[in-house]
Amino acid sequence: MNPKTIQRVAEAGVVGAGGAGFPTHVKLQAKVERVLANGASCEPLLMSDPFLMEEEADRILQGLLLVMECTEAPRGTLCLKGKHRKALAVMQEKVGRGAYKDIDLFELGDFYPAGDEQVLVYEVLGRVVPEGGLPLQVGAVVSNVETLLNIARAVDEGRPVTERYLTVGGEVAEPLILKVPLGLSVGEVIGLAGGARIQAFRVVLGGPMMGRVVSDLATPVDKTTSGVLVLAPDHPVVRDKVRDPARLRNLTRLACCQCSRCTDMCPRYLLGHSLNPHKIMRQIGSTAPAARAVQMDALICSECGVCEKYACPMMISPREVNAQIKKELLAAGGKRAPKKEAYQPSAFREERKIPTRRLLDRLQLSRYDGHPRFDTRKIVVNRVEVPLKQHLGAPARPVVKPGDRVKAGELLGEIPEKALGARVHASLSGRVTAVDGRVIIQAGEG
Ligand code: SF4
Ligand code: SF4
To answer: What is the pLDDT of residue 101?
Structure first.
């Protein structure tokens, strides 16, 4: 462990950029055998990670070395897809020699969800993370490549996290990869890509599989925003995400034919976990003790969306039902102990991996696929709304008040005492005009 590195990472407010925003300084306190750098970029259309590996290779590898040092891991592995040829070629030139001699590469197949932490660990190490568990339990830590970049910047330059790389795509004039200040509105991001090409549209924040539809164009970009996708309101990706949850649950109960395709294709079931979504669907609404025991399995669902978007012939959503059950169980303090001690991945796992190309076709997104250009222009911003919660855990405690002047990089929110959380910093110099779950900064306010 290197307390100085951990302190700098905490000071800079680094959180997992690829998922739920787990505070990185907490993750770094583990001791493991291997650190996996996650560059899988498995959500269709999202391209900022391959771009970063092309352009910021040394910074990412330095971040990986820092995580290896903290966790005392003798080896680090950069995981990326062979289809990202340019990123692969850049990294191949660097790893395994000089300062990076303890780092190797793992070439992932082009399937979904290759970047799911538990799938990635099995692909690279051949170890199954226990159901409901963490990679740490099988000797690994997984960090997204943008997180590694932020770690290197925090430690070497004392630079806090105030920007986010993201893909803006779909029905925009020019799909782009952008680096934007945290707190910039989704509407402004779309404007930077030349605006929407269609009059009526909806916005998916994140990827088409796991992202969410936002109705308010003022929604700010935060540390976990990997994509802004503009799609027609009747596009299947949007339609599935805006269905009324209660109606969908009822529909699933009525329409499920118990074909078990959702289970056959479920990436967690295929790893040998006890998750059988078709059995949960059979028990919707039942309060019998045996049914409740089956419903508890929803807690080990990753919400990857394979069942909903790819497997189910009835076009219903085990993912949504699981998400609802999970929410209810967690609110009631529900905890689930693993049902197994050893895990045997399915013999059919390889053949049931979903090729990204086929997934894109199924999602009707193939026409938007490509490698968007990185826009290097300097983005001038007049106003940001920086959320005090951009991470897993407690919201940051504001340390500024309306009327204060702040400089870009200055602290806006501190981790509450003894809580899991992350610091939040100003992404713009100006005057604070409001503090209420977010900090609004207006540039140039005298
Ligand atoms: S969303 Fe569906 S496919 Fe994905 S882990 Fe959950 S049950 Fe399995
Ligand atoms: S795939 Fe659809 S219809 Fe088949 S068991 Fe799962 S939820 Fe039911």
So the answer is: 97
- Any bridge partners for residue 438, and if so which? 387
User: In the beta sheet, which residues pair with residue 255?
Assistant: none
DSSP code of residue 347: T
Q: What confidence tier does 339 reach under pLDDT thresholds 50, 70, 90?
A: confident
| Cα-to-centroid distance, 278 and ligand 2 (Å) | 6
**Does residue 179 sit in the same domain as residue 227?**
yes
Tokens 């509105």 locate to: 185
Indicate if the pLDDT at residue 92 is higher than 90.
Answer: yes
Radius of gyration over alpha carbons of the chain, in Å? 22
- Write out the residue range of the structural domain in which residue 28 sits: 3-157
Cross-strand pairs, 181: 163
Q: What is the mean pLDDT of the chain?
A: 94
Nearest CA to ligand 2 atom 7: 256
Contacts of residue 217, Cβ cutoff 8 Å, sequence gap at least 6: 185, 186, 187, 190, 203
**Ligand 2: which atom is nearest the Cα of residue 260?**
5
Give the pTM: 0.94
Residue 176 falls within a domain, yes or no? yes
Residues 9 and 121 in one domain: yes
Residues 415 and 270 in one domain: no
Q: Report if residue 218 sits inside a domain.
A: yes
pLDDT of 131 > 70? The answer is yes
- Alpha carbon 28 to chain centroid distance? 18
Q: Could you tell me the distance, in angstroms and rounded to a whole number, from the CA of residue 133 to the centre of ligand 1?
A: 16
Number of domains in the chain: 4
Together in a domain, 20 and 144: yes
Asked if residue 285 and residue 205 are part of one domain, the reply reads: no
Looking at the predicted structure, is the pLDDT value of residue 444 above 80? no
31 and 101 assigned to the same domain: yes
State yes or no: pLDDT of 446 exceeds 60. no
Expressed in angstroms and rounded, the spacing between residue 107 Cα and the centre of ligand 1 is 24
In this prediction, residue 408 carries a pLDDT of: 95
Does some domain include residue 209? yes
Q: pLDDT-derived band of residue 371, with 50, 70 and 90 as boundaries? A: confident
What is the end-to-end Cα distance of the chain in Å, rounded? 45
